[in-house]
Amino acid sequence: MNTKRSRTHSLLIRSFALGVALSAGLSATLPQGALPLATAAISSASSQSVYNQFAAYLKDPAMLSQARKYLLNHIHETTPHHATLMVLQLENAQHKDIAAFAAKFDTTTVQQALDRAARKGKLTFTSLLQQVTDKGTIRLLEMARDRGYKLETMEGMYYPVVNYTEYDRYARYVKPDIAAYIRIRTQETVKPSSGDAALLISWGDVVKRALEREQFLDAYPVSNRREAVQELLEISRMQLFYGLNNTPLFDYESGQIHPDALAAYQAALKQGAGDSKLLALLEQFLDVVKSNGGKRTTKVDAFLKKHVE
Question: What pLDDT score was predicted for residue 140?
Answer without folding.
Answer: 98
